[in-house]
Amino acid sequence: MIPGPFTYHRPADLNEAVKLLATLDGEARPLAGGHSLIPMMKLRLATPEHLIDLHGIKDLRGVRRDGDRIVIGAMTTQHDLLASDEIAKALPILRETALVIADPQVRYCGTLGGNVANGDPGNDMPALMMTLNATYQLIGPGGSREVAATDFYQGAYFTALEPGEILTGISIPAPQAGHGYAYEKLKRKIGDYATAAAAVVLTMSGGKVATCRIGLTNLSETPLLAEDAAKAVIGTSLDTASLQKAAAAAQTIMAPAGDGRGPVEYRRYVGGVLVARALRRAAERAA
Ligand code: FAD
């Protein structure tokens, strides 16, 4: 339970952080809230020789509107998201999701950037970012680039982040006014990761689903975008048959691990139930 030795660095700006990551000898890792990294270090599943604490870089924290997009700094905590009027107004599903992450203590420290950069399939934000069609803003020794959340996740704890790159922000197109949304998460107890979870953002027109995106958490080694499931409900009034079709389509791409949260069959079954539940609740909320 004691981490290996490491050197602590606290750069004051992004350039210094990028330079440190690129030039230090041995493995160097950004440190955000530390609520995933420090436990992994204590278990010796991660043994970085240098920690680059991003807390000194003020520009990385905050929520701002940029035209029709909401841009959230990587160091914005889950608590900040809950306290933001802009998020409550434009991205209520982000607020709903942040509220079911762990407990207030974790949310005070855990950041949106750390949550999405970690690559842990149990984290709630990555599938939501895919559902919202978010883009990740990265900076590294080779300059800046953007990667769609849908292209970012390659395997459990493997992402498109190149060595030395820092995630600086998450840019999300503001969903249409009057959209419906729901994040349905099943967990064993407060503070637990999802046994399964489903995110839905949709719009309705004349009582029928006009647009729909569905994301899935902890039902595979990466977060999933359930595109066929979403297609199954477009143009329908979400009657029982189309909900069942959507759940079945989502279940075909689920490949959960059998673990303490339940056997594979159970988690896949629950995943289907949550997809149908999230679709129904999102439709009820749509104007
Ligand atoms: P850190 O732990 O600091 O970093 C995580 C990883 O991302 C590290 O590899 C780090 O190098 C990298 N990283 C961090 N920031 C950047 C960046 N800007 N650029 C590049 N790389 C970066 N999460 C959930 O989603 N749902 C839950 O239900 C949940 N339950 C939890 C329960 C407990 C008891 C605990 C301790 C944590 C739980 N978490 C849960 C995780 C929590 O939300 C974490 O805080 C989060 O996953 C990681 O964010 P962090 O800011 O702590 O990142």
Decide which structural class fits the backbone: alpha+beta
Q: What's the number of helices?
A: 12
The coarse silhouette is: globular
Low-confidence stretches: none
**CATH-assigned fold name of the largest domain:** Uridine Diphospho-n-acetylenolpyruvylglucosamine Reductase, domain 3
What share of the residues lie within helices?
25-40%
| Count of beta strands | 14
CATH class of the largest domain: Alpha Beta
CATH architecture of the largest domain: 2-Layer Sandwich
Q: What radius of gyration results from the CA coordinates?
A: 19 Å
Number of domains: 3
Order of helices and strands: EHEHEEEHHHHHHEEHEEEEEEEHHH
Describe this structure in words.
The chain has 287 residues and is an alpha+beta fold. It has 12 helices and 14 strands. It has 3 domains: 7-53, 2-Layer Sandwich (Uridine Diphospho-n-acetylenolpyruvylglucosamine Reductase, domain 2), CATH 3.30.43; 62-173, Uridine Diphospho-n-acetylenolpyruvylglucosamine Reductase, domain 3 (2-Layer Sandwich), CATH 3.30.465; 180-285, 2-Layer Sandwich (Enolase-like, domain 1), CATH 3.30.390.50. Helix content is 36%, strand content 26%. A 5-stranded antiparallel beta sheet has the order 4-5-10-6-7. It has a 4-stranded antiparallel beta sheet with strand order 11-12-13-14, with helices on both faces. A hairpin with a 2-residue loop joins strand 4 (63-66) and strand 5. Bound molecules: flavin-adenine dinucleotide (FAD). Flavin-adenine dinucleotide (FAD) binds at residues 29-37, 54, 74, 101-102, 106, 109-111, 113-115, 117-118, 123-125, 161, 166-167, 191, 193.
